[in-house]
Write a structure and sequence with these properties.
The chain has 272 residues and is α+β, with helices and mostly antiparallel strands. Helix content is 28%, strand content 24%. The protein has helices at residues 7-14, 20-27, 36-86, 141-149, and strands at residues 91-99, 118-127, 155-157, 162-165, 167-168, 189-190, 200-202, 211-213, 215-219, 225-227, 235-244, 247-248, 256-261, 267-270. The strands form three sheets. Strands 1, 2, 3, 4, 9 and 10 form a six-stranded antiparallel β-sheet that branches. The chain is elongated, with a radius of gyration of 34 Å.
Length: 272
Amino acid sequence: MSTHRSPGARGSHSGLRPSPKRLSVETNRPRRAFSLIELLVAVGVILVLMGLAVPAFSYIKGGNDFAAGVSMIANSLEQSRAYAMANNTYVFWGIQECNANLPEERVPQEEAGEGSGGRVAVGAVVSLDGTRIYDPNAADRERDWETKTRSGTRLMQLGSILWRDGVSLPTDPLPGTGNLLRPSSPTPLQISEVKDSLSFSSPQGSPKPRHTFTRCIQFDPQGGATVVGSEGVYRFELGIVPARGAQRDSNSANVAVLQVDAVTGAVKVYRP
């Protein structure tokens, strides 16, 4: 004969609870915390990781700043050319390297010297009457230009002055190998070496201009480009290297070359 257990009997075994004494022992067991040595080790590891990360972030930021500087210069050139063609006039584009050790708000900005560059500014002015104004055949080009533009009624500031730290303009040509391989015949003129007597200031017409541009490219209504003071050159280029503060980083592989075709005014960027 089979035997059956009553529900009450089964429940009496399944509903067992830990005794009050056992519960008290589990609740009062001390919890293990971090020791001072463990905390010091953790802090040390964090500091080491931070020490490794900061240079990496600085390198990335420097690379981004340099790339932005190259784009700024190239876009400014192309916009100046486009404006000259669209408005059937002449545009004078200028570039200046300044001392990055000095405040950005300083007026005027100081022209870069040996070991004191690292900040590049670009600006442009447009001929209001559509004429060239600049006469390369004048006996005294500086005096001729100053006489024509002194009144402030023949030139107009084109857009804003743009500038960027972390960028420098070497005077020597950059290598022409790898991705920097570019047309080299006839030998391109280095814009950074040009310092003609012609100059213009920005903001235009200001009694205390922030910048004075002495390295100038003239774009004509057909889009052609001329380095002012070096007429007859068919190709010219601008080497660009990174800078750390006011010091040029000549050993960096992160460089760029902007090459301008004098006939078409087209700008091409070469990067490694």
